[in-house]
Structures are given as structure tokens and as C-alpha cells.
Q: What sequence folds into this?
């Protein structure tokens, strides 16, 4: 079944997929989304069952304002990077939709679903939209924007932008991105439209959100929205700040923080301040040392003190350098890369995909394998006990449980959450 | 002798016992070969581990190119590498899932107390092993040395099945490390080098 994307669509994510449901929400809020339609999850299930393609595809496509379209998967459950995306498709759209349906059953996608307990017969929706070009001219670009800093929870927009490129270049990490705030200088109108959109979305979801966006000739387009995506420490701060802002009440703030999240938030983190780069935290822990740019240098330098090995990506020839180093940084690669797997196996803190980090050998740096941050020098650690937001959240938890006796944070949270659960059961 | 130089090229720095295991040759024979290679200036021994010199890497590149040329194997290796690249992200997903689990949306170290979960991951490793073996079968027909990876991968999997949990992703003889060396070998055999 095919649904034109518009504010009036009234269908849940398990019918039209998570991506389309997010796009409909954006449209309802009056935010700019390229024209498009969604092929429902049902159609995918029918295709997987008997090979029949849905009727009406080419007609729906002809109703779009451009000949070129983007064709993206969008299941009800997020399966990042598992399925195909086809950009700048012209002519018949059926082969692209068929390819995305087919990508539901690649071996890797099946393995991912088995690991995460997602049923194999769920299927994916397919979103077809008029193509917008982040590489059209100097007033074009693509990026990702968070309504709040996903690492610290600080209440200001955070993200990356890449001028003159399409979204796939941002995700691949092939090109060096700029901090989102570069938009404020280069495209002030777009910046203000984007920040307005983020605060509107926060009010709607009552949660921090992030969007994928494209700017085409000075005009902003939103391509995806998702709530959440925060580190544990950030989740605590955002829950407290949203309660202060009146978007949620204190009980909801306590309800949102699980004991697992509290435990993760208790891991010591690097103190705030200047940052050289940010990648993704692939192996937790904080490490400080002098930069070595090759495995051999890491082995030699390690006799004089702790070393952070910084490599573009890794090969087996780097493994003895991993063993000698106290921390690892790569410029390319994701959370499932050879470097990430080896760093975890050796218990070394690691940051991967820090594309912009180009330090001189011997420089003293500190890396945080939880947040993915890289800082100059040694900024020191901030233990969770010093986090004022955590203190406030736990005092709210005590208000709920009525127990103010001194005990570990996890017990205070668990008692409050149990009380909330009892109240919910009685309602 | 070519064998030992190339095996070590794909390993990085390694102790004698690991080189012997990777080559599938006894230690005395490998040590003798390594000493000869050291005399030629192609390998070096530092802090107990053997590794290639820059000249050794150049020599290995030359020899490997000649080997592929003589066997007329370029097309076979290219096609095998393409198929390997489809399997590689799945292997990395599996290793990550073995090391970390999402609990209430937070990634935490797998404490291996959930036996059903571990069995599920182990079974998926077995399934992937079956598929990489098909690729390696064809490679080994053209270049028999690739058959050694089948033995080593299977060995790591069997040890893990026998209860050695570190043999999937967390030791220097693990399934992941052997796979990583296979990845490197394919790149070197194609004359491509990671920058």
C-alpha cells in the first residue's frame, strides 16, 4: 500500500515505518520535508512472501515534482546501516524499491535481527522523496543536528555540517565536517530555521531530538527525525533540564533514567573544556598520553611514559602498538571496526572515526572512550558524584520514595522507580 | 621461505610460537627461516617479537605479485575479496555483539552469564564460518596457502565452542585476529595497502 507523505496521514510506525512516521510528524509541525510517498511495511511482507510488487508505484512517482528521487528503507525498528539507500534515482522507481525490499534479507541484516531479537518477517517500509541536493552550490550542504549536546546534555544545538556535499558524505566520514555552528555564520537564515525546528520538535517529543538535514541553495529540508541518542550522563542532564523547563514533570524525569543508565553515568569522564576532535567512543575509559603516529613509535615511546596511538585506520601491523599504548584513536571506522574490536579485547580506551584529529607526534592528549572526545593536555576527570544534575535527580527520587536515608544512588533510584510502578499499577 | 615472510607480513609483530602456528610449521623450522630472512635484512626481532623491515615489506610485495602472476590468480582473488567485503561487516557486528550487549538501551560488556545469548552468537559465528569457507575454498584452489586460514578459523571456533570464550574476539589467536590477518592478506595479495 502506498501513502502520500502529508500531515493528514494517520498510521503508526509499524505500518509506515519509523522514518515515514517521523516525516509525517515534521509535516504536522509545519516543518519543511521534500515531497514524497511511503510504500508500507505490508507491501514489503507481500513481496517477501510471494515476490509481488505493490501496484501504483510509477503513478505515485509521477506525482512528485522532480524526476530524481531518493529511495530509503525505514523499518518500524531501527536497523542502522543494514539496508540499502539509493540516491538520485531517475526513471522507473520499481527496481529501487525492489532492491530495498531485497536488502531486508541480506545475511548481515538477518544476523543483526537474530542478535537483537527482531522478527525476520517484520519487513521494512520504503520512503521515496523528491531528491534535494546538498551539493548544488555554495549555499548548499548536509548535516546532522541534535537539539542538545548528545555527549554532555548541554542545552544548545550540536552537530556537524558539510557544505557542498550530500548526506551520504557526512555519514561515511570521508570528508571533514564543520561544527554545526558554522551554519550561523555562513547561512544565518538556515541556522535560525533549524534551531527553531529543533526546539519545536523537543516540545513535541518532550525529549532531546536529532534530525538529518539538507540545505539546497539556501533552503532548509529535514530528512529524518529521531528522539534520544544521548550518552548516559547526557540523558540524566536532559531529563533534569526538561523537568526544569516544564516539558516533563519530576516523576517522568526519574522514570526515564533506568538503573543501567545510572550505572553508565557513574563512569568517570573527562572534564569539560577545549576539544581537539570528537569521534565515537568505542571502548570505555579515559586515557592520557603522548601521541604516537605509528605502532613502532608507540612501542619505542612507551618506555618513557603513556602513549596514545593515533592511526588513520588499523591493520594487523598495528597490533603490537595497541598493546604498547594506553589508548587508541582512529580517523576512520565505526563502532564495529577491526580497531574497535581489538581495543575492547585489550581493555584499551578507544575513540574511532575522529576524522578531524591530526595531532603532531609527541603532543599530550586525553581521550574519552565513552563520549568519543579528544582533548589537548590532561583536563582531569569528573566523577559522577560531582555531577549536580545527578544529585538533583536522586533528590527527586527520594521525594518519590519518601526515603532520605544515605545509601547508594542506584538504590535510591530503584526505590523511586518501584514506587512509580506501584502507582501506575493502581491507576 | 616465501611462506614465512608472507605469513609474518600479514601478522605484524609476533612471537615465534604465533608465527609457527599461523604458518602451520614447527617452531624450529620457522626460527631457522626467520634467521635466514634476518640475514637478508627482511625481518627483525625486537623485544621478543619478529616483524618485517621496510625492505622486507617491499620484497614480500614483489614476491606476492609474482606468485599471483604465475598462478594467473588475479581475477580469482579480486572476486574473493569482493565477496569477503560483504562478509566483513557481519563478522565485525558479531565480534561487537560478543563483547558488548545493549541492556535497557545502554551498551555494557557481555558478562557471558546469559548462556542462551552466547549460544545464539556462537551459532551465528558458525553460520558465517560456513559462508567464508566457500570463498576460501575457491581461493585455495588458485593459491593453496589460503587453505591455512580455513584451518585456523575453524580451530578458533572449535576452541570457543569448547569454552574458551576469548577465542572469538579477545585473544591474539582469536577468530577475529585470524580474520583480520586474512583481510590484510587479501589486500597485500591484490597489491593494495592500507594507508
A:
Amino acid at each position: 500500500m502506498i501513502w502520500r507523505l502529508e500531515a493528514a496521514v494517520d498510521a503508526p510506525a509499524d505500518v509506515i515505518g519509523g522514518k515515514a512516521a517521523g516525516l509525517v510528524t515534521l509535516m504536522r509541525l509545519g516543518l519543511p520535508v521534500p515531497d514524497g510517498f511511503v510504500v508500507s511495511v505490508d507491501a514489503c511482507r507481500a513481496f517477501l512472501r510471494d515476490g509481488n510488487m505493490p501496484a501504483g508505484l510509477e503513478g505515485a512517482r509521477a506525482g512528485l515534482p522532480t524526476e530524481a528521487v531518493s529511495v530509503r528503507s525505514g523499518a518500524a525498528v531501527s536497523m542502522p546501516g543494514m539496508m540499502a539507500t539509493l540516491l538520485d534515482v531517475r526513471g522507473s522507481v520499481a527496481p529501487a524499491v525492489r532492491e530495498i525490499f531485497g536488502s531486508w534479507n541480506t545475511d548481515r541484516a538477518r544476523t543483526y535481527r537474530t542478535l537483537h531479537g527482531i522478527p525476520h518477517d517484520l519487513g521494512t517500509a520504503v520512503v521515496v522523496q523528491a531528491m534535494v541536493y546538498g551539493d548544488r552550490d555554495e549555499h548548499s550542504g548536509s548535516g546532522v543536528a541534535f537539539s542538545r549536546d548528545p555527549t554532555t546534555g548541554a542545552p544548545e544545538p550540536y552537530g556537524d555540517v558539510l557544505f557542498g556535499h550530500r548526506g551520504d558524505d557526512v555519514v561515511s566520514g570521508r570528508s571533514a565536517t564543520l561544527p554545526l555552528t558554522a551554519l550561523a555564520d555562513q547561512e544565518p537564515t538556515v541556522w535560525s530555521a533549524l534551531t527553531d525546528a529543533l526546539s519545536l520538535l523537543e516540545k513535541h517529543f518532550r525529549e532531546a531530538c536529532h534530525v538529518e538535514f539538507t540545505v539546497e541553495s539556501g533552503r532548509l529540508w529535514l530528512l529524518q527525525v529521531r528522539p534520544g541518542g544521548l550518552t548516559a550522563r547526557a540523558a540524566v542532564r536532559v531529563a533534569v533540564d526538561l523537568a526544569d523547563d516544564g516539558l516533563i514533570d519530576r516523576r517522568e524525569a526519574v522514570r526515564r533514567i533506568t538503573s543501567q543508565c545510572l550505572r553508565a553515568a557513574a563512569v568517570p569522564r573527562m572534564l569539560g573544556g577545549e576539544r581537539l576532535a570528537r569521534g565515537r567512543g568505542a571502548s570505555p575509559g579515559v586515557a592520557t598520553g603522548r601521541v604516537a603516529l605509528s605502532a613502532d613509535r608507540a612501542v619505542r615511546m612507551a618506555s618513557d611514559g603513556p602513549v596514545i596511538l593515533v592511526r588513520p585506520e588499523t591493520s594487523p601491523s598495528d597490533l603490537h602498538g595497541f598493546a604498547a599504548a594506553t589508548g587508541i584513536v582512529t580517523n576512520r571506522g565505526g563502532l564495529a571496526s577491526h580497531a574497535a574490536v581489538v581495543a575492547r579485547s585489550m581493555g584499551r580506551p578507544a575513540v574511532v572515526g575522529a576524522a578531524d584529529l591530526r595531532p603532531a607526534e609527541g603532543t599530550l592528549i586525553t581521550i574519552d572512550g565513552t563520549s568519543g572526545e579528544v582533548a589537548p593536555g590532561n583536563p582531569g576527570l569528573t566523577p559522577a558524584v560531582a555531577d549536580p544534575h545527578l544529585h538533583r535527580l536522586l533528590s527527586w527520587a527520594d521525594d518519590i520514595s519518601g526515603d532520605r536515608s544515605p545509601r547508594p544512588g542506584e538504590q535510591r533510584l530503584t526505590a523511586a522507580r518501584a514506587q512509580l510502578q506501584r502507582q501506575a499499577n493502581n491507576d | 621461505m616465501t611462506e614465512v615472510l608472507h605469513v609474518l607480513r600479514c601478522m605484524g609483530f609476533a612471537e615465534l610460537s604465533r608465527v609457527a602456528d599461523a604458518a602451520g610449521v614447527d617452531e624450529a623450522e620457522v626460527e631457522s627461516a626467520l634467521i635466514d630472512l634476518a640475514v637478508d635484512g627482511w625481518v627483525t626481532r625486537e623485544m621478543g617479537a619478529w616483524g618485517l623491515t621496510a625492505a622486507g615489506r617491499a620484497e614480500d610485495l614483489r614476491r606476492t605479485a609474482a606468485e599471483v602472476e604465475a598462478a594467473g590468480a588475479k581475477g580469482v582473488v579480486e572476486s574473493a575479496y569482493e565477496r569477503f567485503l560483504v562478509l566483513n561487516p557481519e563478522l565485525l557486528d558479531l565480534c561487537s555483539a560478543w563483547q558488548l550487549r545493549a541492556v535497557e538501551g545502554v551498551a555494557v560488556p557481555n558478562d557471558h552469564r546469559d548462556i542462551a545469548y552466547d549460544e545464539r552468537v556462537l551459532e551465528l559465528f558458525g553460520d558465517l564460518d560456513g559462508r567464508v569457507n566457500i570463498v576460501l575454498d575457491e581461493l585455495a584452489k588458485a593459491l593453496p596457502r589460503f587453505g591455512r586460514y580455513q584451518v585456523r578459523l575453524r580451530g578458533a571456533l572449535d576452541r570457543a565452542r569448547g569454552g574458551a570464550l576469548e577465542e572469538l574476539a579477545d585473544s591474539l589467536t582469536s577468530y577475529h585476529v585470524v580474520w583480520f590477518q586474512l583481510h590484510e592478506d587479501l589486500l597485500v595479495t591484490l597489491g593494495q595497502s592500507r594507508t
About this structure: Residues 17 and 303 of chain A are 55 Å apart (CA to CA). The two ends of chain A are 39 Å apart (CA to CA). Chain A is about 40% helix and 20% strand. Chain A has a mean pLDDT of 93.
